Amino acid sequence: MTSRRDFLRTGGMALAGLAMGKSIFGNILSPASPLQPSDITYVSKRPILAKRNFTSKAVEEVIQKIKPKIKNPKLAWMFENCYPNTLDTTVEFEMKNGRPNTFVITGDIEAMWLRDSSAQVFPYLPLASKDSQLSLMIEGIIRRQSWCINLDPYANAFNKGATGSEWDKDHTKMIPELHERKWEIDSLCYPIRLAYHYWKITGNTTMFDETWKSAMKRVYETFVEQQRKKGTMDTAYSFTRDTDKQSDTVLNKGFGSPVNPVGLICSSFRPSDDSTLFSFLVPSNLFAVESLNQLAEISNKVTGDISFASKCKVLAKEVFLAVNQYGIATHPKYGRVYAYEVDGFGGHVFMDDANVPNLLGLPYLCSFIKISDPIYKNTRRLVLGSDNPYFFKGKAAAGVGGPHVGLDWIWPMSFIMQALTSTDEHEIGECLQTLIRTDAETGFMHEAFHKDDAMKFSRPWFAWANTLFGELIIKIANEHQSLLSA
User: Fold this and answer.
1) Is 110 helix (H, G, I), strand (E, B) or coil?
2) Sign of the alpha-carbon dihedral angle for 459, 463, 467, 470
3) Domains of the chain, start order
4) In terms of pLDDT, which residue wins out, 30 or 341?
């Protein structure tokens, strides 16, 4: 089994997916006869139909609809490769005891992350009401996630069976069904987001059964426990790992940095699976506010648990007010901004990480945060510049990375999220052009690439980034078609 952290591949001249009308090798091409886009035939890098894990008629129709609208042949090729990548390669769907059950790997790691599996299929949700098999498959993910949360709400990643994993020796309560047990707030938020929007689009409520209700109570209880109102160690969860990587373990015997119990929720790890510096991770707390409000609506309108809905609303309001009081700080250059992490004592971290939830992506995940909000706008200016310590500028591109891959490595996901949270057509176009030229000629998104050389990249098979790229192209086609026609 390969860890997310150690799966680094150098791209090289990855041109296997291109069939050239003129050879790029030897002396056929000269400075006087440069290769033009019209000279290249881009061959699909999707698995052949018989080897695809799952096929959706509705998804195929979207590809056939959008692809002809894209004038740039390379961008059209990238869209066709990326958008269906989750279905083509990572979905394992079956009917179990008469109900759908879907296991989704991240790509190059044979495990199901609650976060990734939700985000990987989210761009397909608008099609769920048009494709019954696609709808059934997504329902199977929601059911599988409910089972996972009931098994252990603190785990971030799960095995398909009781197989154990390379992390079995971590100093926490590991069981064979778990792949990894890093407590991350967003691991419990993403399944709610998926279920909520699936319900809104399809009207299907069959997955909101006793297993779901039990899982959601575990979510609420876990959030409350991780407020740690009696002190930093007021929790049954702790985590340490025998490692030489500081970001892979938690200080203070696994409980993290001291926190002042102000109503915020502790997260031992970030969505990158790196440990937090200060345990109150602001973007994840805001995501929890959104999720708790969604959970309250489901409880009110579907499951009929009015008491539970009220508890969720009260907790959401408490966390929201705590973020406003402790999660916003005054930056010497940008004014009032969202801090990335805080401790409740006044300590705060000014930075952002490319992995979502992050500060840049707040309007994407949280309906109550608008792109026009002054604090978000200030935060965005901070994030997308040199005052963010994880903003890197080099010969290949300038963008946001994070500690997970390391200094000087930029995440394509950061450009996708920047474009998804922008209304500026020029900015969106710049992000799109950067994504086109930094794929290392593979036709896919990656986890990260080096700021000076996009041919050096990590994770050649990262389904979440691929599908998210597809979501961006569809949004551009609907709202900024001129960018695809140029």
Assistant:
1) coil
2) positive
3) 53-87+390-486 (no CATH), 90-389 (1.50.10.10)
4) 341
